[in-house]
């Protein structure tokens, strides 16, 4: 009898080229450049090789465009879940009013339903953006889980490096003042918990970071490391997964579209780490990472992973999204 594997979940945030340019303040986003016709087939093929089923968090604006219909419809047709990744993919959702958030989610639900025939019941905020009003809207609209938290201390450093490269005015910097999270996010739990929301509760499934170190190990980081040393990237992944098993963390691991694209596929995104690598090299390394995960874990879509916690007693936390002391909206920590 084969030993029972530990459980993990896997997801893909289907950010499009325009959304990355928009966050960077690059006006080329206004023409809505896309690479979904390339990314989706490559992703489905890579996942199929390892018999992996995942959750794909879809942006509503893309689901609203008829030219993306075939690509998006192919996701549930291949057995994968779909989730809500907001309509406009603005990582400053924490600035939205509750009414704006309700409209943002509703528009995305309608667009995803038309494109895929599925109604999403899980949410991930762009840039890990989350707020108490957003939690209230998710509960009111019947969502089963949120997956927007990234428990790492590296958010302020990543933001500072991003700001150094981006062309942003003062207002854009203010909007993005908590892009990638704050130092306090590193103290958030790695294991699932429930948010207490107006007398109700909502399951939170964090994106997993390396237990103890709290540094990310999702695929984009591994590929950036693999560009320097493939063996080091594989060692880092295995160490992170062993740490998860030792601490009884069921890892929830994240993919991004740029994990499937090379330098020639999206030259306008050359500023991203790892975009100097060719697509064949990236896909080869990614295939290796997915193979490790599929061999060592029983990998589920995030929604199925959430179902495992439906009847479990979990810690309940009050929402706390206050700005860090000493960090103003216009400050780059």
Structure keywords:
single chain; 333 residues; alpha/beta; TIM Barrel; 5-stranded parallel sheet; 39% helix; globular; disordered C terminus
Protein architecture, described:
The strands form two sheets. Strands 1, 2, 3, 8 and 9 form a five-stranded parallel beta sheet that branches. The protein has a five-stranded mixed beta sheet with strand order 4-5-7-6-10. It contains twelve helices and ten strands. It is an alpha/beta fold and 333 residues long. It has a single domain, classed as Alpha-Beta Barrel (TIM Barrel). A hairpin with a 2-residue loop joins β6 (193-197) and β7 (200-204). The chain is globular. α10 packs parallel to α11 (279-296).
Element layout with pairings:
Elements: E1 7-13, H1 17-24, H2 36-49, E2 55-58, H3 60-63, H4 69-77, E3 81-84, H5 98-116, E4 122-123, H6 132-140, E5 145-146, H7 155-165, H8 170-175, E6 193-197, E7 200-204, H9 219-226, H10 230-246, E8 252-255, H11 279-296, E9 298-300, H12 302-307, E10 316-317
Parallel strand pairs: 1-2, 1-8, 1-9, 2-3, 4-5, 5-7, 6-10
Antiparallel strand pairs: 6-7
Helix pairs in contact: 2-4, 5-6, 9-10, 9-11, 10-11
Give the gist of this structure.
With 333 residues, the protein is of the alpha/beta class. It is 39% helix and 11% strand.
From the spread of the alpha carbons, the general shape counts as globular
What composes the largest sheet?
A: 5 strands, parallel
Poorly predicted regions are 324-333
User: H/E series, N to C?
Assistant: EHHEHHEHEHEHHEEHHEHEHE
Provide the helix percentage.
25-40%
Q: What is the CA–CA distance across the termini?
A: 53 Å
Number of domains: 1
